[in-house]
Amino acid sequence: MSARIWTAEEIAWGRECLSAGDSLDDIADGARCSIDEVVANVGSGRFTPRQREVLSLYTSGCTFAEIEWELDGSSSKIPGKRPASTITTLRRNGVDIPYRREA
What we know:
It is a single chain. α4 crosses α5 (64-72) and α4 packs across α6 (81-92). The longest helix has 12 residues, at 8-19. The protein contains six helices and no strands. It has helices at 8-19, 24-31, 35-42, 49-59, 64-72, 81-92. It is 58% helix and 0% strand. The chain is elongated, with a radius of gyration of 15 Å. It folds into two domains: 8-42; 49-92. By secondary structure, it is mainly α.
């Protein structure tokens, strides 16, 4: 049995759930489908712990400099460079992360 193709709204919801840290089981329960169907439509959501932390803070509205300060307790020579690099890597790997202007 093949996985049903989700609507754009369902995919957006699934990606938002992954970004918020929900497990594939949680999303499958919420969508009333199998884990295989979730993976087929929104991906596996397999992020490193660091990527998950950066993504969570970024989607909560923190700036890159704030993320760096929160996770590392200090700032590098170019504040926010490491979190910005993490977000860029996630985007290149197909994670749909909205763009926004840094303050």
